[in-house]
Amino acid sequence: MSWSDDTIFRPPAPRPAYEFASKSIESLPQELANLTNLLYWPLTPGDKGDLLASTSPQTSTYHLRGPAQASYALGTYLEAILIARDHRGRPKTHGGDLFRAQLLGPDVKAGVPGDVQDLENGTYLLSFPLLWAGKAQVQVRLIHSSEAIGVLRRIWREKRATVDFQGYFRGPTGTEETVICNVDPQSTRTKGPTCQYRDVDSGELWFCAQPPTLPCNSLVGHSSGHYLNVTTPHDEALLAWKVTDKVLPQGISPIQIRTTAPGNSSLALSPRPPCHPGLPAPKPSGFYHREVWHSLSCSSRSFSTVDSILGCLAGRVVHMMGDSTLRQWWEYLLHTVPSLKSMDLHVTYQTGPLMAVETSRDIVLHWRAHSWPLRSLRTPVASLHSVVRELGGLAGGPHTVVVLGLGAHFTTFPPSIFVRRLTGIRTAVAALLAREPRTLVVIKLANTGYKSVYGSDWFTLQVNRLLRAAFAGLHVAFVDAWEMTSSLALPDNIHPGPLIVRNEVDSLLSFVCPA
C-alpha cells in the first residue's frame, strides 16, 4: 500500500520488526482473504426515498410452520415462518433484514437464540431447539430493516472513517499542539503533510496531521476525537429509534415442552467433551437455564465460589488484551475474589495496563487496551502497545492464558482495516503456539449492544465472521459473547450486566480448568 509523497515518515525505534509484520492478507485462511463471500449479505433495492416501503416491526408477522401441538418433546425443534412487511402492510419481496429470534423460558430464567434463515424473498425460516422442559415463548425483534442495513453497508464500505482522534504533541519547553489523527492520511482532514507512525512489531500504520511547529516525533498523547457526520436525513430516518430493535407483535402462543419420559432430565444436554481449544462451533453455541449458560460444544462449568475461582487460576498468569468489554472480565474477577489486589500502575484506567495479583496462589491478571484505533480519554502514546507486540514478548507455557477481545473499536472503519489488524495477530498467535503449544489462547467474540451508524449489531455480526475466519485452523478457544448477550430478555448493552459477565468468565475458566 502506498501513500502520497507529502507523508512524513517517523523512523521506527532501533529494534527489529518481526518477520510477520510485512506479511499480506493472503497469509490468512482463504475464508478471510475472500471478503466478498465471508461478508455476504443479500443486496436490496432500497426504498427509493419512500420510508413507508421499508420493513416495519409493527406489520411484519410470524407463525408456526406446522400445526400447533398440545406440547412439544424435549430435544426437538420448533419452526416458524416470518413474513417481512413494509409500513403499508405489503409483503416484502426481498430479504436482507436483520431479525433476532429468541426462545425464552421466564419461569426457569432460560433462553436460547433462534436460527434465522433468510430465504431472500421477504420470508424467513425460524428454528428453535427445545432444550429445557416447561413453558417457552418465542420473541422476535427487528434490529434493522434491509433498507437501514443498506445505509450501514454503504457507509462501512465507502467511508474511510466515521470517527477521528486527537493527537497531542509536546515540545521541549512544554508547548503543546493538538491535531487530528486516523487510520489513513486522508482521514486526518488535512491538505498539508502528515506524520506516519509504524508499529515495528505489527507493521500497523497510524497518521496524524503534521503539527504547525512541532516535529512528528513529539507525539505524546492520544484520545478520542469526533463522530463524523456521514448520514443524510433519510438515512437517519431509516436508523431511527422508533424502527430499530423493536419487538414484533406476538405471533405464537406460549408452548409447553415435555420430557420424553418421567424422571428424565429437564435439559436436553447430550454428553459433551471437556472444554478445550479447537472444538467445532455448534449453532446455537449454548443456552441459559436458571441464569447459567450451558455450552453445547463442551461440558462448561460454573465457578460459583471464590475458592473454585482461586483453585482454577492458581499458578497462572492471564494476559487480557482488547477493549473495555474484555476489561469487564478483569473487573469481575477483581471484585469477586477479595484476595485479588489491584496494583496502582499510575496509568489511565480506561486504557491500562491494569494488573491484579493474588500472592498466596501465585495468580497474576493483566489487562490492557489494544492500540490504535481506540476511542478513549487522553492517554500516553507510550502506553498503547499493539497486541502483536505483547504476544511477541510472551514465552507462553502451561501456566500462561491469553485472552483477546477486539471488535467494537473497528466498526467505524471499512472491514479491510480490521482484516489488516487480524493478519498480524493471527500470525503472532500462531508463532506463540508454535514455540509453546501448551499456551491457552481464548478469543472473545464481540457482543451485542450498539444500534447506530457508528456501531451496530449488523457491524458486529461481520466483525465476528472475521474473527472466526482469522483464527480458523489454529488451536484456540472461543467464548461466544454474541450469543451469550442475545439469548435472554435483557436490554442490549455494549457493556453487559453482571449476569452475562459472570457466565462469560465461567466459560473462560471452563477452558482453563476443563471438567
Topology:
Blueprint: E1 7-9, H1 30-33, H2 35-38, E2 61-64, E3 72-73, E4 77-83, E5 98-105, E6 110-113, E7 115-118, E8 123-129, E9 134-144, H3 146-158, E10 163-170, E11 176-182, E12 194-198, E13 205-209, E14 219-227, H4 233-238, E15 246-247, E16 255-258, E17 286-289, E18 292-295, H5 306-313, E19 317-322, H6 324-336, E20 341-343, E21 354-358, E22 363-369, E23 379-380, H7 387-392, E24 400-405, H8 415-435, E25 440-444, H9 457-470, E26 477-479, H10 481-484, H11 498-512
Parallel strand pairs: 1-12, 3-16, 19-22, 19-24, 24-25, 25-26
Antiparallel strand pairs: 2-4, 4-8, 5-6, 5-9, 7-8, 9-15, 9-16, 10-11, 10-14, 11-13, 12-13, 14-23, 17-18, 20-21, 21-22
Walk me through the structure.
By secondary structure, this protein is of the alpha+beta class. Helices cover 21% and strands 26% of the residues. It has 11 helices and 26 strands. The chain has a 7-stranded mixed β-sheet, with no helix packed on it. Strands 20-21-22-19-24-25-26 form a 7-stranded mixed β-sheet, covered by helices on one side. A hairpin with a 4-residue loop joins strand 5 and strand 6. Helix 6 crosses helix 11 and helix 8 runs parallel beside helix 9. It is globular, with a radius of gyration of 24 Å. It starts with 6 loop residues before the first strand and ends with a helix. The N terminus is likely disordered.
Give the N-to-C terminal Cα separation. 48 Å
Q: DSSP strand (E) fraction?
A: 25-35%
Structure class: alpha+beta
Counting DSSP E segments of at least 2 residues, the number of strands comes to: 26
Based on Cα principal axes, name the global outline. globular
Approximate helicity band:
10-25%
Number of helices: 11
- The stretches of 5 or more residues where confidence is low (pLDDT under 50) are 1-26
Q: What about the largest sheet? A: 7 strands, mixed
Rg computed from alpha carbons, rounded to a whole number of angstroms? 24 Å
Major sheet strand order: 1-12-13-11-10-14-23
Overall pLDDT score: 91
